[in-house]
Design a protein that fits this description.
Layout: E1 14-34, H1 41-61, E2 94-110, E3 113-140, E4 151-153, E5 157-164, E6 168-175, E7 180-185, E8 195-197, E9 203-205, E10 223-224, E11 231-241, E12 251-253, E13 256-261, H2 262-275, E14 280-289
Parallel strand pairs: 4-14
Antiparallel strand pairs: 1-3, 2-3, 3-5, 5-9, 5-10, 6-7, 6-8, 6-11, 7-13, 11-14, 12-13
Length: 290
């Protein structure tokens, strides 16, 4: 979803958590996922990866805060196992900062059932205190929260609703199938690296009709989802902090949002999150089909 998806949400979708960080640690986790019949191989790999990361956090820090990082996967050709029916990413006392290397997968079948084993290493930090701070939602073809969706068709409009309990700053990035990072917010007309938001105010970004009070309508970048393949997966990062931060160094591209390589984006994000104990990141996965 490259240029078409000019929406890189660096905010935090869903409910994010405020935390106080401790030192960074290297962690490792494994998980064996038995996929139901209606789950594809790619979906099973994503689930196995997410649960392996949560397993690693739970083993290292114990259990209660959200996992704020995702590892990209392209649609191309010693620990005890955690019970995920009762434990989710919001229940472990740590957050995933960065994946080291590539996750490893072992694919097998048991009595006709797809089984995916995933092992992953990364950098993480302990979270001591938590507090609900904001809600962000991806919206399709409408600006009300009832239009929230993670499934898009080529040509659909993309919007983001955001509301925080405290004043602060937000940015949004989008990662496409080719591992390019696009800065969707701040808009291209902005000379700053973040957008300042007030507490307890609902904002809808990427729509000129809802530009006020932060922007003039002419300053708003609006985005349509498109894809070159039959289906593509994109990742929207919502980045938020009560403290000012500067956007990543990126490049202007005619007709597209500012962009940089995913590796450079991750280095920038990891550096900022390590320095800012209050910075939060939530990632949403969206699919786009023709």
């Amino acid at each position: 979803m490259r240029h078409y998806i000019f929406v890189m949400i660096l905010m935090f979708l869903g409910v994010a958590t405020t935390s106080y960080a401790q030192r960074t640690r290297k962690v490792h986790g494994e998980y064996i996922y038995h996929a139901p019949e209606n789950v594809s191989l790619e979906q099973a790999k994503k689930t196995a990866l997410s649960r392996a990361q949560i397993q690693a956090l739970g083993d290292e820090f114990g259990t209660v805060v959200a996992q704020h990082n995702a590892t990209l996967m392209n649609n191309t050709n010693g620990s005890t196992q955690t019970d995920f029916t009762s434990l989710s990413s919001s229940d472990v006392k740590g957050e995933w900062l960065e994946t080291i290397g590539e996750p490893k997968y072992e694919i097998s079948y048991e009595q006709g059932m797809l089984v995916v084993k995933c092992s992953v290493s990364g950098k993480a930090r302990e979270l001591v205190a938590t507090q609900n701070s904001f809600v962000a939602k991806i919206l399709r073809n409408g600006t009300e929260d009832r239009f929230e969706s993670d499934n898009f068709k080529s040509g659909d409009d993309l919007y983001l609703s955001y509301q925080s309990s405290t004043k602060g700053y937000v940015a949004v990035y989008l990662i496409d199938d080719s591992k390019n990072a696009y800065c969707l917010l701040p808009y291209q007309s902005s000379q700053d690296g973040k957008v300042r938001v007030d507490a307890n105010t609902r904002y809808v970004f990427f729509n000129s009709k809802t530009a006020a009070p932060l922007f003039q309508p002419a300053d708003v970048d609006e985005y349509n989802m498109t894809c070159e393949k039959a289906a593509e997966t994109n990742y929207i990062y919502v980045i938020s902090s009560p403290n000012p931060f500067i956007k990543a160094i990126d490049n202007a591209v005619a007709g597209l949002p500012r962009e940089l390589k995913y590796e450079d984006f991750q280095k920038w994000l990891t550096k900022n999150r390590t320095a800012d104990k209050d910075m939060q990141v939530e990632i949403k996965t969206i699919s786009v089909k023709k």
